[in-house]
Amino acid sequence: MWTVGSVKATLRAHDMLVTMIEEQNYDEQSRPNLSGDPVNVSVGILITSIHSISEISMDYGSTLFMSIHWSDPRLQFKGDEPIRLRSGSELYKRVWIPDLYFVNVKKAALHDVTETNTHIRIYPDGWIVYDLRVSLLLVCHMYLERFPMDSQSCTIKIESFIYNTDDIRLNWGWGRTGNVTAIMDSEVSLPGFTLHETTTTKQEIPFPMGIYDRLICRFDLYRQIIYYVMEYYVPSFLLVILSWVSFWLSVESTPARASLGITTVLTLTTLSSLARTQLPRITYLTAIDVWILVCSLFVFAALLEFAVASYVAIHFNKSYSTSRSCHNRAKSSAEQVSVMATLSSSDMEEGKASLTRRSFRSSKTGSSNCTATLIDNCSRVLFPVSFILFNVVYWLKYGLVL
Hints:
With 402 residues, the protein is of the alpha+beta class. The protein has helices at 13-23, 226-243, 254-276, 287-342, 345-364, 370-398; strands at 39-54, 59-71, 83-86, 100-102, 105-110, 118-122, 127-139, 151-160, 168-172, 182-184, 193-207, 210-223. Strands 1, 2, 3, 5, 6, 7, 9 and 10 form an 8-stranded mixed β-sheet that branches. The chain has a 4-stranded antiparallel β-sheet with strand order 4-8-12-11, with no helix packed on it.
């Protein structure tokens, strides 16, 4: 074995490592214990940030420190201090390193300010620690049926690219003891989400080339609903209530009721379009889709109620006026004949005018707006009660997750 002395030693640490590698014909392409037991590789991560969660592309960004530990008996030496290799060292690429990769990664980048953030430490007993800092864009498959009252589970998956379980056994662990696996920085926070603690698991994934170990770090994200309540739920709720104002307006107020109904319908349609821009093109309804759809139906039904009430009032008025006018004309003719037979010429003119006024008043009797008013009165009760029942069912179904 080799000895690493103090600063006064004739050979520097990196020179001794060169000598070890050259004299032992060290092959950085071959794993330790090539013909023996698989290499136990421990992995620990420290998540320093989670950001840019996107429902549309179903991914999120993360920055983390990753520490990989394994033992290489070929690099044992006598000494007290570890040999440290920076990323710019010539010996950096001459040491065997496990070929781990992130299974669900879209993009990855090593940090290189001010130097590339990678570091290798080789301890006297051959224990090797490989540290690196990396930024990742990771896939997170989201199920949005309960959006925006949903919770999502995102993962970081680590696996060996070449070596199966015959060559490498992956395990969660930080340091020699392996008590700590995955750590979430206490300062990590997400706007719009509540972050829960991380959990780590291990799976064995079968491939045609063999069985591979896969390490999985999972953390749950619970969406905060307050933004969506203020941005979508409250405005749509008020629009539905605003559409009911037309029930208290007179049937003859056609311009006011028509403009109120059309305005609420168009506003709610715009609100629905804005809500859909935050979601991918999914083929199922989300919770906010159900809410806005039902609110749109209530607003449209209020506009339709005005059309029905107005039609009934106008149609009844015309029918009633036509039938009454025919009857009144026949009755007036008979009265005029009998009256003119007994009255003088001056009285005849006065009686004729009185009969005409009486005929006009009788054509308007019957209150042609009674049916339309009855429709409005029923709507004043039916619409609010139905909307309250919908709210009870909706929040019991989707809101219980809160």
